[in-house]
Design goal:
149 residues; alpha+beta; single chain; two-stranded antiparallel sheet; 5-stranded antiparallel sheet; 3 helices
């Protein structure tokens, strides 16, 4: 199964007392159903969740590098905002994105308190990601992120 990767902004959720990005809780519909047994011995099936590497801080949202087979479950979740396409080259200039998409992304980022006014229109996409990530975690670097192959 070929796997792609995307950068996604998603809410932070709490599961069993732990804060985590929402993408951790979403099953990848492109993976096969697997057999499991719960704590009471009852068998059940579920799919794998998406692999991720996430910047998560004190805010209520996270920036996640997500790898998966089928992104339809994330695409249909209105709380998850895809910043880059599948395996998109981050050195491309953001002005190569359609204007409607750029405006939508800028609005989403501005709503989260991120200022892009000093970035030129031809800034590479990784500069946008760096700005978003540093809002979540000041030490964030968009380079060297690894998510399972």
């Amino acid at each position: 199964m070929p796997r792609n990767a995307r950068w996604i902004i998603n809410p932070v959720v709490t599961v069993d007392g732990m804060r985590m990005p929402k993408v951790v809780t979403i099953e990848d519909p492109g993976t096969p159903l697997r057999d499991y047994v719960d704590d009471f011995g009852v068998p059940f099936q579920k799919r794998n969740v998406y692999d991720h590497s996430s910047a998560i801080g004190e805010s209520e949202w996270a920036l996640s590098f997500v790898r998966g087979v089928d992104f339809s479950a994330i695409d249909t979740d209105p709380e998850c905002i895809t910043l880059t396409g599948d395996d998109q080259n981050l050195s491309l200039n953001q002005d190569m994105l359609p204007i409607e998409r750029r405006l939508q992304l800028k609005t989403e980022m501005t709503n989260r308190g991120i200022d892009f006014s000093d970035l030129p229109e031809n800034a590479p996409i990784w500069r946008w990601l760096e700005r978003v990530g540093k809002k979540v975690m000041p030490e964030f670097q968009p380079k060297g992120t690894w998510v399972g192959l």
